[in-house]
Amino acid sequence: MKIGAARLTFHLPENGSLKGKRRVAQALASRLRQQFHAAVAEVGEQERWQTLVLAVVCVSNEEGHAERMLDNAIAFAERQRLDAELINVSRQVLDGA
Which of 46, 47, 58, 84 could form a disulfide with 10 if both were Cys (CB 3.0 to 4.6 A apart)? Predict the structure, then answer.
């Protein structure tokens, strides 16, 4: 079993509140879950209005498939929000039990 994990950091230059950030986070997470059947959660910078950090995690039986799933999810996330600029991506594929 292979576990693919990506950490996506977005800059929200026009955002002025935590409520606005939550709206962006929930919409993006929901779309990623629906499109890729991946686990998605906000994992950092919860108190910063203009920074959003999401983790996207998928499970596969082969490393190449997990990599492609992450590639597609990252590209999808980048295209979804014009008000959120993807500024950093870290990712890895791990061997599971």
Answer: 84
Q: Is the pLDDT of residue 75 over 90?
A: yes
pTM of the model: 0.88
Phi, psi torsion values for 38, nearest 5 degrees: -105, 160
Class of residue 66 by CB neighbours under 10 A (exposed 0-12, middle 13-18, buried 19+): buried
DSSP string, 8-66: EEEE-TT--SHHHHHHHHHHHHHHHHHHH--EEEEEE-TT-TTEEEEEEEEEESSHHHH
Q: Could you tell me the CA-to-CA distances from 96 to 59, 68, 69, 88 in Å, in that order?
A: 9, 18, 16, 25
Read off the pLDDT of each residue in 68-91 and give the average, rounded to a whole number: 90
Structure tokens that stand for 25 in this block: 């986070």
